[in-house]
Specification:
The complex is a heterodimer. By secondary structure, chain A is α/β, with parallel strands linked by helices. Chain A is built from nine helices and five strands, in the order βαβαβαβαβααααα. In chain A, α6 packs across α8. Classes of the chains: A alpha/beta, B alpha/beta.
């Protein structure tokens, strides 16, 4: 399937704002889609589509902050840049506490928005690359046998083959064979690389 | 560690043992820092370091409940200091005090690891509530 270019999704109930942002982004060579309401955007939302959101805080119906919460519930990773003409610090703090990428007060300079959009697109690309990397590691982990997984867990805890053999009640030679299979299946060049892989897929604190 | 103590309070009981948790207020000897210290009087035991280095040292002390950055300490940009404090203490509540309506500073502080940004004046009650919650 052909991958779509990263897209800036603009969600604002004001026609004039949507038009001006579309022109601005287009002039900078950035692909964009515009929506007049949060509901409209959410009904078209595709988690696989890379990009970022430029979202008005105050809109009739669902507000921008409510839409952000909806996206959080769906596990969305799109960086969100809020724009508002009526913002205050408590509102900005709430948006940032819920994971907003940025919060911008209208009126803003065109370049100010473009800079933030570029940073948000870069962040999204980083997040997606990290996710692809961890997905690949998980796929490799799924190919390990239960015994290989036990060996992997013990060696990445820093245990030597002899200790692993003692813990599992098998010979050291058996551990060496399992360990070689683990390295091969995980496509790891060294123990350090294997440890980094396991850290990348470990659940957060 | 350099810093002066202000008031006592914030005693909590943990399995029958009483302990006092500390609020670190980092700031110069400015009007705003003094207002913050006044607001926090009686809320908990306050340490007031006057340098970033001392503030960071205090954050590593046992029983620190939160860090309140009351004022710009001018030794290094506030965002760098915030980031450093956040890297050192992932779960420490860090509250940044700003002038009213300083949206740019507030957003930047949040991006660099602040738990919340509070305008002084007028959000005195919000500051007391946030710090009281951190003490629990």
């Amino acid at each position: 399937m052909k991958e779509l270019p990263p897209t800036v999704f603009v969600v604002d109930d004001d026609d004039a704002v949507r038009d001006s942002l579309r022109l601005l982004l287009k002039s900078a060579g950035i692909t964009c889609d515009v929506y007049g309401s949060a509901q409209d955007f959410l009904s078209h939302y595709d988690a696989a589509q890379a990009g970022c959101l430029v979202l008005d805080v105050r809109m009739p119906g669902m507000s921008g902050l409510e839409m952000q919460q909806q996206l959080n519930l769906r596990g969305a990773m799109l960086p969100v840049i809020f724009i508002t003409g009526h913002g205050d610090i408590p509102m900005a703090v709430e948006a940032m506490q819920h994971g907003a990428f940025d919060f911008l007060q209208k009126p803003f300079r065109d370049q100010e928005l473009l800079d933030r959009v570029q940073r948000a697109l870069a962040r999204d690309a980083e997040n997606r690359a990290r996710l692809r990397h961890t997905d690949r590691i998980r796929e490799r982990l799924a190919t390990l046998s239960p015994r290989e997984r036990e060996v992997l867990d013990l060696v990445t805890q820093g245990k030597a083959n002899k200790m692993v053999a003692g813990d599992l009640g098998v010979s050291q030679r058996t551990v060496e064979i399992h360990r070689a299979h683990v390295m091969q299946k995980m496509e790891a060049g060294s123990l350090a690389e294997l440890v980094r892989m396991m850290m990348a897929v470990a659940p957060g604190p | 560690m350099a810093g002066s103590t202000q008031s006592n309070g914030g005693a909590t009981t943990d399995g029958g043992a009483s302990r006092v948790r500390t609020i670190i207020v980092a700031g110069q000897s400015s009007q705003r820092t003094r207002e913050v210290l006044r607001v926090l009087r009686g809320v908990g035991s306050v340490i007031w370091p006057r340098s970033l280095e001392a503030a960071l040292e205090w954050t590593s002390a046992a029983d620190v409940a939160c860090l309140v950055i009351a004022d710009d300490l001018r030794e290094e940009p506030q965002d760098d200091f915030l980031q450093e404090a956040r890297e050192l203490h992932r779960n420490l509540p860090i509250f940044v005090i700003t002038d009213p309506d300083d949206m740019a500073e507030a957003v930047s502080a949040m991006r660099h690891g602040a738990t919340a940004v509070i305008e002084i004046p007028p959000s005195y009650a919000a500051l007391r509530e946030e710090v009281a919650r951190a003490l629990q």
